[in-house]
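F.,

This is the one I mentioned.
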């Protein structure tokens, strides 16, 4: 199975968000080819959540898991720690009061 590059996936994700008028920004540019992607959802009320893609070794399935959620400052600190471990990590910040991130949508969920 051919995997999309991180750069391609990020640009497709941003385009899908733009299509629904959901603001999103690349706050950390990772490796174009194989960088992992972390998505921060900022609900603009002082709270946030960060999502990372995980891989189930037994089934081969890929899905999005909540890395952390809570006060935005705590989520930002967790993201900074992840960037310290993985300098090739992409970070996308989505800003939506309704909490939409689209990671559960077809083509993004898996």
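My design for it:
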């Amino acid at each position: 199975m051919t995997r999309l590059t991180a750069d391609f996936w990020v640009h497709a994700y941003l385009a899908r968000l733009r299509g629904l008028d959901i603001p999103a920004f690349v706050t950390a540019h990772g490796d174009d080819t194989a960088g992992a992607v972390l998505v921060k959802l900022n609900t603009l009320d002082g709270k946030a959540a960060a999502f990372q893609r995980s891989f189930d070794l037994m089934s081969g399935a890929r899905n999005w898991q909540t890395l952390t959620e809570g006060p935005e400052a705590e989520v930002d600190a967790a993201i900074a720690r992840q960037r310290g471990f993985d300098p090739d990590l992409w970070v996308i910040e989505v800003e939506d009061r309704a909490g939409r991130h689209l990671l559960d949508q077809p083509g993004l969920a898996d």
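The chain has a mean pLDDT of 92.

Talk soon.
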